[in-house]
């Protein structure tokens, strides 16, 4: 559900892919923003003529008029009509080449994000255009560990495939099993049995990513890589970080269970 108070920031999404459009709308709503939607660059230019926007999330590759050309026309409109507000145009593209950012800025765009867009990246980009950003929703607090937003998105997909009861069972198994695995890792870190440590880290990486616990997964992957290379120095610190992130994720997982299977 969207938070009860929306930011007055006027946002336009220009995106030809239906799934990407829907994802952008949902992500913006979760962050406390409302947005209008168009499906190509030509419609984006026409929308700007009809009403002012503060921000445009501009896909770079669209039919009829791509994001680069649409940005050029919008900038020309603003230049020729000084009273027209100049929107902040944020490029959104699946490309990740080294010169893509420069190409976007040269076209007149103000910022650049790669797909898949992360909620915190989007939040930061919008805050640059909004002096009074909305507070984060109470249901999705920002934590110094895994993202509750990612957890919800991934487990919602799992629930659609397997059913909420099955996802509850999987999360409970994860909560029960992970402390045992972490205890083993503490004993094995910087020791001679790097094969077992690598196996445990690989297993934790997989189960954590299953639920969208990407920070836990990334730390596990780093430990797995170190064990595979026999690089024992720093392994204890990695395991301590894993313990801390898991501890911070426990209430998120418990809350998600209650959301999936109320009562």
Care to describe what's here?
This protein is of the alpha/beta class. The protein folds into two domains: 117 residues, 3-Layer(aba) Sandwich (Rossmann fold); 113 residues, Four Helix Bundle (Hemerythrin (Met), subunit A) (Up-down Bundle). It contains ten helices and five strands. Strands 2-1-3-4-5 form a five-stranded parallel β-sheet, sandwiched between helices. Helix 6 crosses helix 7. The protein starts with 10 loop residues before the first strand and ends with a helix. The relative contact order is 0.10. The N terminus is likely disordered.
Kindly provide the name of the CATH class of the largest domain: Alpha Beta
Total domains = 2
Report the mean per-residue pLDDT as an integer: 86
State which percent range the strand residues make up.
Answer: 5-15%
Number of strands: 5
Secondary structure category: alpha/beta
The CATH homologous superfamily of the largest domain is named Response regulator
> Approximately how much helix is present in the residues?
55-70%
Parts with pLDDT < 50 across at least 5 consecutive residues: 1-5, 137-144
Number of discrete helical segments:
10
The sequence of SSEs as H and E is EHEHEHEHEHHHHHH
Whole-angstrom Rg: 22 Å
Span of the ends, CA to CA = 19 Å
Major beta sheet, specifics? 5 strands, parallel
CATH architecture group name of the largest domain: 3-Layer(aba) Sandwich
């Amino acid at each position: 559900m969207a938070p009860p108070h929306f930011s007055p920031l006027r946002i336009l999404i220009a995106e030809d892919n239906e799934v990407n459009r829907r994802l952008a709308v949902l992500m913006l709503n979760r962050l406390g923003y409302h947005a209008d939607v168009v499906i190509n660059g030509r419609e984006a230019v026409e929308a700007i003529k009809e009403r002012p926007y503060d921000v445009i999330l501009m896909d770079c590759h669209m039919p009829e008029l791509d994001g680069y050309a649409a940005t050029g026309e919008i900038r020309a409109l603003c230049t020729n009509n000084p009273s027209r507000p100049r929107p902040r145009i944020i490029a959104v593209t699946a490309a990740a080449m080294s010169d893509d950012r420069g190409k976007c800025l040269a076209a007149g765009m103000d910022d650049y994000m790669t797909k898949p867009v992360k909620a915190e990246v989007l939040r930061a980009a919008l805050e640059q255009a909004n002096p009074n950003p909305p507070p984060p929703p109470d249901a999705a607090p920002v934590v110094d560990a895994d993202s509750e937003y990612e957890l919800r998105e991934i487990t919602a997909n799992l629930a659609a495939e397997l059913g909420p009861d099955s996802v509850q069972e999987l999360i409970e198994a994860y909560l029960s099993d992970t402390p045992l695995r972490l205890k083993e890792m503490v004993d094995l870190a910087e020791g001679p049995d790097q094969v077992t440590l690598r196996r445990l880290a690989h297993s934790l990486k997989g189960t954590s990513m299953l639920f969208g616990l990407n920070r836990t997964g990334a730390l596990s992957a780093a430990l797995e890589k170190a064990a595979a290379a026999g690089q024992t120095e720093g392994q204890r610190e990695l395991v301590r970080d894993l313990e801390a992130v898991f501890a911070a994720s426990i209430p998120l997982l418990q809350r998600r269970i209650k959301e999936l299977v109320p009562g």
